[in-house]
Prior knowledge:
- The structure is a single chain.
- The radius of gyration is 37 Å and the shape is elongated.
- The protein is built from 22 helices and 32 strands.
- The model is unreliable at 1-70, 160-174, 233-300 and 643-687 (pLDDT under 50).
- Helices cover 29% and strands 18% of the residues.
- It has a seven-stranded mixed beta sheet with strand order 25-24-30-29-28-27-26. Strands 4-3-10-9 form a four-stranded mixed beta sheet. Strands 5-6-7-8 form a four-stranded antiparallel beta sheet, covered by helices on one side.
- By secondary structure, the chain is of the alpha+beta class.
- It comes from Daphnia magna.
- Pfam families: Fasciclin.
- Residues 1-18 form the signal peptide.
- Keywords: Signal.
Amino acid sequence: MMSTAFIYLLLIGAQVGALPVEWSTSDSALIEVTTKMEADVTAGEVEVTSQLLDDVIVDDMIISSRQKLQSAGGMEFPNTAIIPGDLTEQLSVDGFFSLWFVFLDDDVFTSDKEFTILAPSNSAPMRPSPTAEDKDRVRQLLLNHIVLGRAVNLSSDLSSTSPPWYKDTTNHGNKKPLTVTTLGGRQLHLKTRKDGTAVVNGVKIVGKEVRVPPNGVIIVLEDYLFMDEYHGDVEGSESQLFSAIPMVTASDGSDHFPMIELGTAFDDDSVGGGHLGAMVKNEPVGSVLIDRQKLNLTDVSRPFYEELVEVLNFLRSGTSDFLRYLEQVNISSLFSDEEEYTAFIPMDDSFAQWYPIDWGFNPFDVEAFVKETMMNHFVRGRVKQKDIIDGQSLTTLGGKTITFSLSPAGQMSVNDVEVFDGDTLVSLGNIQFVGDLLFVNSTVVRELNARHRDVESAPLVTTPWYSSQFLSHTYRELSTRQHAPIPAGSSSPPSFSLALDYINRTQPQLRDDLPSHDDWKMITYTFFVPKDSAFVNLWPQDTADPFVIDDQFRRDIFLNHFVRRRLYHDRDLVDGAVITMAGNRTATISRDGNVTKINDAIIEEADIFIYNLGTVFVIDRVLFASQERISQVLAKNADRIPSFGLAGMDGALLAGPAVDESQTLVVDLLDELATTQSTAGKLVIRE
């Protein structure tokens, strides 16, 4: 029977062209429409002529129709009459809107609420093209592209309110996801990937949202959403009954991993309206997505990787870490669009066991390790559990071997990791859930930590200098090396007693010059630390220590041994590189074979990682301390007694009757210092 909404939508389509109905333009269709209209609408209610009705009459009809349908319980629908007629064509989404003829027989009333329409681009046509028999499926598909009650703003709704330095471990990057519900009752998850691309349920969003005043939004998509459901047996199947968002609940106390709980169920009669039904009971993890949608194979298949990402996005929790790291390393290029694959997916607690509580090493901060780990959870081919035999081996995409075993009781494991019962078949592949990460154990993590101490977070220390964590941890590291036992037969390691003494004397200034944070953002550093012999060789014996007698000189020299960013030897210290030091002087890197120099100083030990705070390099000379500058410092402080670093730790210098004699000694030694010859770049120390 013809509904009043048919006339309303027909009028809107004729008035603004917002709802193309190209499938209803044949003569037979027009005759059918005219016949139905004559049967359902009396002359007193509305008269349809070959000419457009006057605007006032149209408005009255719309208001009357809306009130009638709303009181009769019709479906609430966005006011698409406000969409300009040529906008859909300009956005290349008119093909999507041409499908809206399926609503012409529905009892709908327009709403003044905000709305968002997610319109697939014309470049993603429906294949195969729908026919008249596909009307119900098309109708459900379109409803799953309409959100009523919210006009999504991609820039603000997907942005984080956290400060820029804060790292959210629950999301990828600093963006928060947005979840909305469509008129079809399906959940849409909008998020921003690491590369800045906005996606909804794994489908890329093309450009920014287009505002439709006063309260509408059109978002253009690269492809249709929920096409797997469209190609499956949607009408009357169990896939209608389940929400697309399962979540992991607490363990029931058994030896098995926690069950998956489906979000909400829909009643058959209320799916179209998006009304929620009762909660669904817990389901086994291996079959949750089969219950959700059955995932029947069809002639039209989606690439495995796209399907996998969408499936993992459906899970409210439980596999979020796997998805986060999968998107972080972006190994999508390893998957062919036509080839089949199987994924072995561990749950979140498999990752959480390796996370440090407050500080320490997180192996998943090492990107190369994360990429390798992700690759080793995929194999080529659709591997079903019923086809696996005891002892069967497969090669992962990362090149490692996984071997299956079956216990006498029939429990399956892979590399001694439990495999949960049940296959989750997806387009061009299969998903199996496992009880732990593959190829990740304490030995692997310990060896990884030894090679990547640069990503290990540091404990917060209050001493020596709370405000400069890098300086404090560096002081502790050098002090530890200073007192480390010397293995038998080994040469003595470099001593840093003088550098430690000078840092301690200068710490009131250095701790302010080298803070841990700037506007709440952590600052990393590099320190080129001279060993003791580098200082000893700077001036003749029995003269004053210029680093003790002149505080400003000491501060300037040491500040110019720090860099306000972390440097790596192989990556940053390339031949010809120019580095700006913390004291604003510049140093030049030179490389000759295995020898690396910064100015004239040879780097004897590189990449001493001070947690994730910075790096230390050991050098054999003091930077920016020329003979001329040393002479100037000694001349300026000729009234000071020679101390050679033996002054008290409080910085006080000795004074007494020998002052006059020491002044003469300093003046005499200045002449000697100026004429001292150097050997191999080091001043000769006379006995």
